[in-house]
Amino acid sequence: MSSPNGQRLRRRVWLDTDMGFDDLAAVLMLQHAANVEIAGMSLCAGNAPLPVVRRSAALAAACFGWAFPITAGAGAALNGSSVTAQSVLGEDAMRSAGLGLGDVVKTELAEIADAEFPLAELAESAESVEVLALGPLTNLARWMQAPASRQRIASITWMGGSAGPGNHTAAAEFNAFVDPEAAQIVIAEAAKVGIPFKMVGLDACRQVRVRAADAANLRAIGTQKAALLADLLLGYVRIPDPSGQSPMSVYDPTAAALWLQPELTTWRPACVDVELVGHHTRGMTVCEFRVPRKAQANAEVAGAVDEAAVRAMVLAALAAASS
Ligand code: RIB
Ligand code: CA
Predict the structure, then answer these.
(1) 234, 181, 182, 174: which is closest to 210 by C-alpha?
(2) Which of 67, 143, 167, 235 could disulfide-pair with 96, CB 3.0 to 4.6 Å?
């Protein structure tokens, strides 16, 4: 994003997150990116219940010096259900090989206020924001239905859905599965009012992997924050394979990288519909790429991803946050 004289313009981003480790890594990427202002962060239940997400966000803010406003939003999906990934990610959704955020942060935690509706920080903002959504879209569905907040949203990039198999179920990616009604509302409302919607699905994120060796390199920096992030990264890598021998895909950091540098993937126009009733397929994002012949496009879907470039961005941000 450059101005006519070639100067890179500052981009304002609003983060919506369910604060697992991959969310944390994504936030650190934006915190350490040039020409990016984090306008604020809203929290939603997802990886863990909202009280746990709230505590993780408060600890991370204290640990990494986040000065932007953080508000707590939806504690359950629009239909009232509460599905979490704690069985996979651990009670705090921050499975670690050693240190946790609470071991490093000894200061008093900042109070995280409940979000107003519509979101005051958006409704009253003089400038628009780009939204990077890293969890279920419950908060966004509410704001998209309120003109006062919706009018400040310039674009939406979502780590969610999949143009291929799911992860939480065979058909559905976790963020979509937790609140498929919200995902359908956001995609439909964005198309209705002309807000660009980009989906970075599992099929894109699965191309970017981290390994135990990346954690070892981080640890070698030698600071306490490096040890913390190395333990969290190693705990994350060990999720699919406790031995830590297998690589592990990074989801939210891939979406953050593609928000920062969209040229690192091929964006394909598609009509994305979210399955709401299928017994085996609820939460599936059905991507029709034969647009406009078969349907009107309502999204751009990430395709082939430059793994080396995205990996470098993720690991550089973790190293920068370790200083
Ligand atoms: O399916 C991966 C997504 O679900 C990521 O955003 C992860 O943090 C969880 O929210
Ligand atoms: Ca997430």
Answers:
(1) 234
(2) 235
User: Across the chain, how many H-helices and E-strands are there?
Assistant: 14, 12
- List pLDDT tens digits, range 93-141: 999 999 999 999 988 888 898 987 777 777 788 899 999 999 999 999 9
Closest ligand to 16 CA?
2
Q: How far is the C-alpha of 266 from the C-alpha of 93, rounded, in Å?
A: 31
CA 109/CA 258 separation, integer angstroms: 31
Would you say residue 3 has pLDDT above 90? no
Distance 80 CA to ligand 1 centre (A): 19
Q: Does the global pTM surpass 0.85? A: yes
Q: Domains in the chain and their CATH numbers?
A: 11-321 (3.90.245.10)
Omega before 247 cis (within 30°)?
no
The 3-state secondary structure of 20-68, one letter per residue: CHHHHHHHHHHHCCCCEEEEEEEECCCCCCHHHHHHHHHHHHHHHCCCC
Query: Does 73 contact ligand 1 (Cβ within 6 A)?
Result: no
**Cβ neighbour number for residue 35 with a 10 Å cutoff:** 12
